[in-house]
Amino acid sequence: MLLSDLPDLTANISRTVADGDCVWMEWSMRGTRRDGSLLEFVGVNIFQVTDGRFRSGRIYTEIVRDAGGIDAQINRMTKGSR
């Protein structure tokens, strides 16, 4: 459903960290809804890797609020601005 609802969906992996059998990925995705509005979301995935394959993992995702994108969201979280 996500791909059909956001036909121009793009994804970016901004950072990765590997520590032993644990891999962390920070990522962002954005696309345009069918009504023309922008949807942005960001997240972190944490995977356990065995023999070069993902064996288990957790995904943490947050929709970026419509008030200015990711930079405005970070300002709200760190400085309390709106």
| The first-level CATH class name | Alpha Beta
Largest sheet entry: 4 strands, antiparallel
Largest sheet, spatial ordering of strands: 1-2-3-4
CATH fold-level assignment: Nuclear Transport Factor 2, Chain: A
Give the CATH architecture. Roll
Q: Please give the domain count.
A: 1
The sequence of SSEs as H and E is HEEEEH
Report what the structure shows.
- The protein has 82 residues and is an alpha+beta fold.
- It has a single domain, classed as Nuclear Transport Factor 2, Chain: A, CATH 3.10.450.
- The protein is 18% helix and 55% strand.
- It has a 4-stranded antiparallel sheet with strand order 1-2-3-4, with no helix packed on it.
- The protein starts with a helix and ends with a helix.
Compose a concise summary of this entry.
The chain is of the alpha+beta class and 82 residues long. The protein has helices at residues 2-5, 69-79; strands at 10-19, 22-32, 38-50, 53-63.
Question: Helices and strands in order, then pairings?
Answer:
Elements: H1 2-5, E1 10-19, E2 22-32, E3 38-50, E4 53-63, H2 69-79
